[in-house]
Automatic annotation (TrEMBL):
Belongs to the short-chain dehydrogenases/reductases (SDR) family. Keywords: Oxidoreductase. It comes from the Bacteria. This is Oxidoreductase. It comes from Streptomyces castrisilvae. Gene3D superfamilies: NAD(P)-binding Rossmann-like Domain (3.40.50.720). It holds the Pfam family adh_short. The keyword Oxidoreductase applies. PANTHER family: PHOSPHATIDYLINOSITOL-GLYCAN BIOSYNTHESIS CLASS F PROTEIN, PHOSPHATIDYLINOSITOL-GLYCAN BIOSYNTHESIS CLASS F PROTEIN-RELATED.
Length: 309
C-alpha cells in the first residue's frame, strides 16, 4: 500500500453511484465530497434535513458540477431505514459507505428499543445494508465500507447483553458497537465469498480525527470539563477530518482492496496515510460473526439474500 496515498489518487468514479451515511459533517462530508470530485453520483443519507441539504450545497460550491443529493435517513429508527431503502430507485449501487455513528453517549434507546450506540452504529447499518443488498449484488465491483474504530479494542461483543442492560459503561458500549462493525464486515465478506459474489465488504477507521463525534456525549450530559478536554485533543493531537477520511476513501476506491480488510492511518493507527490496520483477534471469529449476524436479523427483521451462501 502506498504510504503517500491521498485523495488525489482516487480513481475516476464516473458512472458510479454511492450512498454515504452521516454525510452532513466530519469524515462523512469529506468522503462524499471527494467521491463527488472524482465523478461519482453521491446520495447524502443524513438524519437532519437542513444540515443534509446544507452539506449538499457545500459540496456543490466546492466541486463544480458535483452530482449530489440529500435523502433522509435516521439509523436510530428502523422504519426510517426501510423508507430510505424503499426510496432508493436507481438500478445500481456501487458504494455503500456505512459512516454515521455516535460515541460514548449517556444510556439511551433507539426508536425500536435498542441501546443507542449498538442500535445506530451496528443495527441501523446492518439493516440498511441488507435492504440495499440486491442493488449491491447486481452491480459489478460493488463495495460496502463500514467505518469502525481503533477503540473496538476496548471490548469484545457480549452476546448475552447486546443492549448493555446489565452494566452500561459508555466507552465499553462504544467499543462493543465498533467490534460489531468489524464482525459484520467479516461475516458479510465470508458469506459473499461462499456465494461466489464479487461484492467487497471492507472496514476502515479514521484514527484520531477532529470531528464533533468526540464532544457530543459530554455536551449531552453537560460535562463541561470532559467537553473541553475533547476539544483540546481535537485542536492539539487530532488530524483534520480531511485526513481522517482517507482510510474510508481508500477502502472504497483503491484497486486491490481485499474483502474483510481493515484500513487505518499509518502512524500508530492515529494519523497519516492509509495502511492495513491492526485489529483484535475476536473480530475475525467465524462463530461470533455468525451469532451476531443471526441475532441482528432477528432484532431488525432484515434477512440478507445472499444466493448460495
Amino acid at each position: 500500500m502506498n504510504q503517500g496515498w491521498n485523495a488525489r489518487d482516487i480513481p475516476d468514479q464516473s458512472g458510479r453511484r454511492a450512498v454515504v451515511t452521516g454525510a452532513n459533517s466530519g469524515i462523512g462530508l469529506i468522503t462524499a465530497r471527494e467521491l463527488a470530485r472524482s465523478g461519482a453520483r453521491v446520495l447524502l443519507a443524513c438524519r437532519d434535513e437542513r444540515r443534509g441539504k446544507e452539506a449538499a450545497d457545500r459540496i456543490r460550491y466546492a466541486v463544480r458540477g458535483a452530482d449530489v443529493e440529500f435523502a433522509a435517513l435516521d439509523l436510530a429508527d428502523l422504519s426510517s431505514v426501510r423508507e430510505f431503502a424503499a426510496g432508493y430507485r436507481a438500478d445500481r449501487l456501487d458504494l455503500l459507505i456505512n459512516n454515521a455513528g455516535v460515541m460514548a453517549l449517556p444510556y439511551g434507546r433507539t426508536a425500536d428499543g435498542f441501546e443507542t450506540q449498538f442500535g445506530v452504529n451496528h443495527l441501523g447499518h446492518f439493516a440498511l445494508t441488507g435492504l440495499l443488498l440486491p442493488k449491491l449484488l447486481a452491480t459489478p465491483g460493488a463495495r460496502v465500507v463500514s467505518v469502525s474504530s481503533g477503540l473496538h479494542a476496548l471490548a469484545d461483543i457480549d452476546m448475552g447483553d447486546l443492549n448493555s442492560e446489565r452494566d452500561y459503561r459508555r466507552w465499553v458500549a462504544y467499543g462493543r458497537s465498533k467490534t460489531a462493525n468489524l464482525l459484520f464486515v467479516h461475516e458479510l465478506a465470508r458469506r459473499a465469498a461462499a456465494a461466489g459474489s464479487g461484492l467487497v465488504a471492507a472496514a476502515a477507521h479514521p484514527g484520531y480525527a477532529s470531528t464533533n463525534l468526540q464532544t457530543a456525549g459530554a455536551r449531552m450530559e453537560n460535562r463541561r470539563l470532559a467537553e473541553r478536554v475533547m476539544e483540546l485533543g481535537n485542536r492539539v493531537i487530532a488530524q483534520p477530518a480531511s485526513a481522517g477520511a482517507l482510510p474510508t476513501l481508500y477502502a472504497a476506491t483503491a484497486p486491490g482492496v481485499r474483502p474483510d480488510s481493515f484500513t487505518g492511518p499509518r502512524l500508530l493507527g492515529w494519523r497519516g496515510a492509509p495502511r492495513p490496520s491492526w485489529r483484535a483477534g475476536w473480530t475475525r471469529s467465524d462463530v461470533a460473526g455468525e451469532r451476531l449476524w443471526v441475532a441482528s436479523e432477528q432484532l431488525t427483521g432484515v434477512t440478507f439474500a445472499v444466493p448460495g451462501a
